[in-house]
Amino acid sequence: MEELLLDILSRLRTMPGSDALPSVEVERIVRAHNRGIRDNAHHLSKKRILPFYLHVRESDPDRWQAWGVDGALETRLLRTLRMKPRRTASGVATITVITRPHPCSSNCVYCPCDLRMPKSYLSNEPACQRAERNYFDPYLQVVARMRALSQMGHATDKVELIVLGGTWSDYPRAYQVWFVRELFRALNEWPDVQGAAHERYAHYRDCGLTHDGGSLTAFVADEQAKVDAGESTYNEAYRRLYGKSAPHRAAAAIMSATTGELEREQRRNETSAHRVVGLVIETRPDAVTPESLTLFRHLGCTKIQIGIQSTRQEILDANRRATTIAQIKRAFSLIRLYGFKIHSHLMLNLVGATPEEDKQDFATFVSDPGFLPDEIKLYPCALVSGTGLVHLHEQGLWRPYTEDELLDVLVADTMATPDYVRISRMIRDIGADDILVGNKKTNLRQMVEGRIVELGLAGKVRDVRFREINQDAVDLDSLVLGDFAYETSVSREHFLQWVTPEGRIAAFLRLSLPHWDALSSGSRNVDASELPTRPGDAMIREVHVYGIAAQLGHSDVAAQHQGLGRALVSRAKEIARDAGYVRLHVISSVGTREYYRHLGFGDDGLYQSVPLAAPETPSTLA
Ligand code: SF4
Fold first, then answer.
1. pLDDT tens sequence across 316-356
2. Do 176 and 315 belong together in one domain?
3. pLDDT 10s digits, 549-563
4. What is the reported pTM?
5. What is the Å distance from ligand 1's center to 320 Cα?
6. Is the CB–ligand 1 distance for residue 104 below 6 Å?
7. How many domains does the chain have?
8. Calpha distance 535→512 (Å, rounded)
9. 344, 310 in Cβ contact below 8 A?
10. Which among 398, 307, 415 is positioned nearest to 354, based on CA atoms?
11. Distance from Cα 416 to the centre of ligand 1, integer Å
């Protein structure tokens, strides 16, 4: 591989100007190197050269320096070797990071207890493996993921950060601020991250930590055995393991930052080449308070993932979820009124549930004004070792649904999904080896979609995910702007969507018009005085434009798509103003602040906002 790379570099040096090598020339050089390689031996290919180059640059600086690649030559090399840049369906690269192992104050019966991980995660889930290899360090995790995305040819100018790992608010505040500061710093510094990354790895090694899987298994083995046998809880074992561990305590010495340091990285990111266009944080309903949500906003959070699992108290109790329906509904109201998007988790096949009751549960979730999420992870409960569910299964108190039952429930749920809800997943990222009993099919969603097609129901599906245009070309002139309005217990919501004649979505916006009169009268589960906004304020909770053309200001098509977003915002302003609202906020992400400044929004506390001209005929607030 090295010889092939050196040949390409030498060819680039002899080429005048600043061009990349044409693809045919690269293919010719690759073919020349493959000549003489026997049939069964590993052949070289263009797509493997760039990962090799980046790997050596990262891990073997002396060898890399011997190649004599300066900045200009490297730019040409990257242009030569990069595969066609790809975008994800949503137009945004996603980076999932995991926080360090930590207890959870709940102890749900189905929840995994892997002591190498924060509660509820398993060490062989892909993001968890990456986190563990990088000592759960946020900077290193982002660097690893950016490297992988770049090597796969993904565009990374717009990044959504998803922070997973138990209940965020249970971590010390200084850790929360540090963790997020490091996420922003890594994106701001990419790709010049080698020095900082090496220093960080050295810190963990010097503290005596390891990221070797075998050593980590040995580290937790005794305590894990007690947890798996039901003799100890995760939290008790965690405290014995990590509470006294000198290496972990020494490593934690750097895990603190001030809000001033965080804000500095956020300001840099506003105009960085790799901007944070979404920051998702995970929490529990009982941990949602005005104080926690205010901190989330300071961190730059735009979406909250929240475990709900069921809308029925008896099911929550049977599964030992330490939460009440009243807490869940208040959490929904608070999250919505603070402007966040609500990404909830709902579980099928919990202890005490039946397929028919699960269908009803979902129907309640998307029709009761106290719930009404924006996105749902809808997945079946599975049996994982070390959980309380194992004993219930042994006693015959829980059984997994058959495949047919599961498909039947998921089809019914999909068909009950309204226009504004996106079912983001139908399985959890648990490997088949970790599932003792339960669904192991990773293509469950395709099976559900297949059954929907068989039943002739495809034309009736409203789930956002089902209708996204993805990478398909779309005739912009054919798009129609629709408005799906609905009532929640604290607001009137407008889901504005640009749709094709077939109903497929090219862009959408979520507008919340709070019921200020009711919120001020004390008749709701949230009082107006608990909110950072004021009576008369409306809120844009999300603007999303799909597709390859959503790249930040690079092409004509992009400009057209930005036009879709702009038109959505204009329509939201009209709707809010006509309903009597006087100010429109947007819960912008750090990396989209510039975009909203161009649209006339000014920085305004936790949000950006624009005043709305008074309506010609005053109307009462909804
Ligand atoms: S609240 Fe979440 S992390 Fe905590 S025990 Fe329950 S499922 Fe696990």
1. 999 999 999 999 999 999 999 999 999 999 999 999 999 99
2. no
3. 344 333 334 444 558
4. 0.85
5. 10
6. yes
7. 4
8. 13
9. no
10. 398
11. 27
